[in-house]
Amino acid sequence: MSETGRRIAITGANGFVGRAVSRALLTRGIAVTGLVRRDAQCEPGVDARAINSLDALAPDAFAGCDAAIHLAARVHVMADAKSQARAVLDAYRATNVDGTLAAADAARRAGVTRFVLMSSIKALGERDPGRPFTEDDERDPPDAYGVSKAEAEVKLLEFGSRTGLEIAVVRPPLVYGPGVRANFLAMMRAIARGLPLPLGAIDARRSLVSVDNLASATIECALNPVAAGRLFHVTDGYDPGVAELARKLGEHLGKPARLVPVPAGLLRGIASLTGKTAQIDRLTGSLRVDSQRIRDALGWQAPQSLDEGLAATAAWFRNSQS
């Protein structure tokens, strides 16, 4: 079937990644069905179909679709006090494991042949083991979200083996790009305002992937026959240091980053007193990801370099502030 005759369903099509995947598919002439909550805004041209919950999905939600890209997930950090730990994990599992399997089963019954899961590098861990993570590393998730993603990967691949539904799993590290939120946006705001950042002495390296690169790789996993039954890491292909990333962002924002060389040990000490240990650990620890498998197996190449992705993100940020 030619690309122009295809239709792909996207759960969570209204989200940051979902919009990028939708745009990329529509540009290629592939029709998009967006499975989203009622009143959610999708990209123009997406056939939005309202759903109430993943576990209540009926096969007709996927009617006419050849493949499905599953982006919908519980991603926000919930209160995780020890007294609530079990409830937190159960909440993540309900959406990210049970909901994923329910969506896959509904897609299979509708005649969908390929189901792509958007997972996370957190299924492996928060820090790399002194070298870039590979797809063959043992899963060792650091929190409830990571546990739920790791379990979803395992159970979904088992489901595919049992039922014949072709499964592909995509594991990105930090995703950035126009429309980014959370810590990446906070860093850009701080740099744009000329605020000093205590990152000058941090040499930890972090893998990143632009949202457009992630969209491109995800679509490749939905279309390429070789992707069936496999798991792939996706990155920009270059792992900047934390201080280097801040400097690059400053260059693209036209505001040189003001980096103060605070030793990592001192930062961690301050963090332990202020309750920010997790955030500082993410800044001071390396998290490198090997993405050679998708390049070798599928012939995929990132359409954007890191600098191109950062330039597009900075341009969006500047326009959003005007």
UniProtKB/TrEMBL annotation:
Q: Where is the NAD-dependent epimerase/dehydratase domain?
A: 8-224
Which InterPro entries is this protein grouped with? Epimerase_deHydtase, NAD(P)-bd_dom_sf, NAD(P)-dependent_oxidoreduct
Which Gene Ontology terms cover its molecular function?
aldehyde dehydrogenase (NAD+) activity
Entry GO terms, CC: cytoplasm
Classification via Gene3D superfamilies: NAD(P)-binding Rossmann-like Domain
Q: Note one Pfam family from the annotation.
A: Epimerase
What's the name of the protein? Epimerase/dehydratase WbiG
Provenance organism:
Caballeronia pedi
